[in-house]
Amino acid sequence: METKDPWKDKLTAEQYDICRMKGTEPPFTGAYYNFKEKGVYRCLCCGAQLFSSETKFDSGTGWPSFWEPILDNVKTEKDTSYGMLRVEVLCKNCNAHLGHVFEDGPNPTGLRYCINSASLKFEK
Questions:
Q1: How many CA atoms lie within 13 A of 33 on its CB side?
Q2: What CATH number has the domain bearing residue 37?
Q3: pLDDT band at 114 (very low <50, low <70, confident <90, very high)
Q4: What is the domain range of residue 19?
Q5: Given 3-state DSSP classes, what are the helix, strand and coil percentages for the chain, each rounded to the nearest 5?
Q6: Catalytic residue flag (residue 45)
Q7: pLDDT reading at 1 higher than 80
Q8: Is residue 31 assigned to a domain?
Q9: For residue 2, pLDDT beyond 70
Q10: Number of separate domains in the chain
Q11: Which of 20, 37, 91, 115 could form a disulfide with 43 if both were Cys (CB 3.0 to 4.6 A apart)?
């Protein structure tokens, strides 16, 4: 018996590839990598608050980068895909793939949450 994935009806092909299949958008192409407005970045899939514009910074990588998530709304998992060891960032509420976190960010945390624009929805 074949079960249809309900996310395919709710997301564009790019959003589905990134959020549900752990894809990555090309650098410098996402809607929020150079976005400067003040507000909250929510999970595209479930609407959970993920990042504040107050913690966003220009990492020069081509993806929106944040030094801290909001509250405890993201979780991390070990990612060994593509022959690399990385730390994947997921929405704690719906398990949407958001991006990866690295230990080369600014103070005060020293972290860089490198997030796909296609996994986010901005709210002023």
A1: 15
A2: 2.170.150.20
A3: very high
A4: 7-123
A5: 15, 30, 55
A6: no
A7: no
A8: yes
A9: no
A10: 1
A11: 91
